[in-house]
Amino acid sequence: MNSHFLAFDWKGFMAHFRQFDANSSALSYSFPPPTVVAGMLAGVLGIEKDEYYERFNRSNLQIAVQIVTPPRKLVQTLNYIFAKSANDLNMSGDNLHTQIPAELLVAPSFPRAPLHYRIFIKIAEAALAGELEEALRQSKFRYLPYLGSAPFTSWIEWLGVPETIEPAASTEPVIVDTVAPLPALELRSLRMEPLDGILPAFFREHVRRDFLPGREPGEVIDVVWEKNRGKIQAQFKAPVYRLRLGQQVCHVVFM
Amino acid sequence: MNNSEILFVYDAHMCNPNGDPDEENRPRMDNPTQTNLVSDVRLKRYIRDYLQENGHELYVQKGEAGKTVNASERIQAALGQKKAAKLGDEDLQTLLNKLIDVRLFGATMPIKLEGKGQSIAFTGPVQFNWGYSLNRVYLLDTKSITSHFSSEAGKEQGTIGKDYRVKYSLIAFHGIISGYNAKNTGLKKEDVALLDQALVKAIPLHATRSKVGQEPRLYIRVEYNSDSFVLGDLRKWVKFSPQGTNKDDEVFSVQNVKLDITSLVEKLQEHKAKIQQVKFWKDGALSLVGALDALPNGSLLTF
After folding, report:
1. CB of A20 closer than 8 Å to CB of A208
2. Is the Cβ–Cβ distance between A52 and A131 less than 8 Å?
């Protein structure tokens, strides 16, 4: 069965992608993890929470994220309503508020430039690919896209249906442009040497790949991304896709 | 209901637009870029207070002194019945009909509906992103202040705290109204008109000592002709430049502000076919470059 590829840019001035294993401090990933992208795409099609996990499962829809502008984190403490139960959510509890530190993401030159992520999706089901392409191409949204948390309004710039070039050779090290899942890399193959004269700075984050039906949490993986050039040179076990978008060729590995 | 996007600009002169509770209540700042920040909930709170003062019943509000009304009790009071063990869809509609803040901003309510869980969450169709200053913001030197609120009951002396203020901050907010989501909370056209009014009027009415010196300057609500399209964040087409001075740190009042919305107007022209109407309000003291010319009748907001 042929896969369908779509690509778009996702931008906004602020974001917060809550780490699933953080405690009461709301720490953020530096990029939208696969569960966030899947949830946003389901929302765009108007599919309710808890009703998309099967169709948007990793076996049907795979997600790759390129961090075009590496974000900067800033911590702001939020004054939340203190609630021991839903009964206190109208600010009726004995303690009215509780203070929660939250990491927010902004572009380095905030607010003169927005955050910028490039999203690639690979879909097995033709009907779903068609629906998503129509919605994203024409900016026709049911629920509006937001960057991780409802206040962080955002916008989507459609890039197109990338043309797939033959898979990159897997025996040689390749330079990929996206966040890379560590299980996709050959052991000890990550190249630490400078690339184009710039020393790489790697970051590792711990994300969930997807939700399973019934909101069962899916597999957790470590992923790696690079801050200075946005590129990772390594030898890959998993397929690396060479996708052509206009004049540009991107090397993409799905999470 | 159609989608709308809001651009709202107000300024803060020698006051504290939004303190960070973990930083001695210092104004929220992105320090590397000297950008002043205001949270979405701070703005929503101005609107809630305005609505409450104008006699609207709210779900999230402080009880009167010495009287705690928890969420279940408030729901029961709104429904006018004594027990609300199991509510039907009709009761939910009644509730939404009464509580304007839930229709606008959503809420989580401890309601047991047949076949559903312990509580129901409504996502608000109206969302604001965090506001940020369009100018570089400088903080005034702090003073220590004393207050008559003591830290513990029974103590006679008050507490000592810091009082931080911005010199001048021109704050821009972006908001959306999701027509698709409006169906879930039953948001009405009248609510949106009230939101227009609240944003322009609420802030100067909130005259506590840390908030005196704030004035609304510009309000634009672009209403599209569908519930599926938005342009994104309108602030990316708004440009601030200082007036009467070349130095950032000499921007001290609205007299030193020039706001250029030429790019925004061009963007709106480009997408004219998707726009139903534009609601517009501007403070007389603001120098605005770029006119929303040929505004159709009824677009100018007057209160």
Report:
1. yes
2. no
Locate the chain B residue with the closest alpha carbon to A15.
Answer: B129
Q: What is the pLDDT of residue A171?
A: 73
Q: What is the rounded (10 degree) CA torsion for B22, B23, B28, B34?
A: -140
Q: Are A221 and A204 in contact (CB under 8 A)?
A: no
Q: By three-state DSSP, how is residue B202 classified?
A: helix
Q: Please name the helix (run of DSSP H) or strand (run of DSSP E) that holds residue B30, with its range, or none.
A: strand B29-30
ipTM of the predicted assembly exceeds 0.90: yes
pLDDT-derived band at A50 (thresholds 50, 70, 90) equals confident
Q: Which of B108, B130, B134 sits opposite A14 (nearest CB)?
A: B130
- For B216, residues 6+ apart whose C-beta sits below 8 A from its C-beta are B8, B9, B10, B199, B200, B201, B203, B204, B281, B283
Q: Where are the beta strands (DSSP E) in B111-256?
A: 120-123, 126-128, 131-133, 143-146, 160-163, 166-177, 214-224, 239-242
Q: Which residues of B touch A24 (CB under 8 A)?
A: none
Question: For an interface test with B, which of A153, A158, A215 has the most B Cβ atoms less than 10 Å from its Cβ?
Answer: A153
DSSP character for A141? -
CB-CB: which of B60, B130, B178 is closest to A151? B130
Q: Are strands B166-177 and B126-128 parallel, antiparallel or unpaired?
A: antiparallel
pLDDT digits (tens, 9 = 90+) for A107-151: 999 999 999 999 999 999 999 999 999 999 999 999 999 999 999
Q: Within 10 A of B104 (CB to CB), how many other CB atoms are there? A: 27
Q: Best mutation site among A9, A90, A100, A149 for testing chain B: the one with the most B CBs within 10 Å? A: A90
Q: Chain B contacts of A104, Cβ < 8 Å?
A: 130
Amino acid found at B71: A
Is the per-residue pLDDT at A7 higher than 70?
Answer: yes
* A92–B63 CB contact, under 8 Å: yes
B150's tokens: 């003591």
Chains A–B, number of C-beta pairs less than 8 Å apart? 129
CA atoms within 13 A on the CB side of B80: 2
- B22 contacts in chain A (CB < 8 Å): 77, 99, 101
Q: Are residues B99 and B51 in contact, defined by beta-carbon separation less than 8 angstroms?
A: no
What is the nearest CA distance from A231 to chain B, expressed in angstroms? 26
* Residue B116 distance to chain A (closest CA, Å): 13
> Can you read off the two tokens belonging to residue A10?
């996702």
pTM: 0.93
pLDDT of residue B116: 66
Q: pLDDT at position A247, please? A: 92
Count of CB atoms within 10 A of residue B18's CB?
Answer: 25
Give the chain B residue whose CA is nearest to the CA of A79: B21
pLDDT at A136: 97
SS3 B96: helix
Residue B66 has pLDDT above 60, yes or no: no
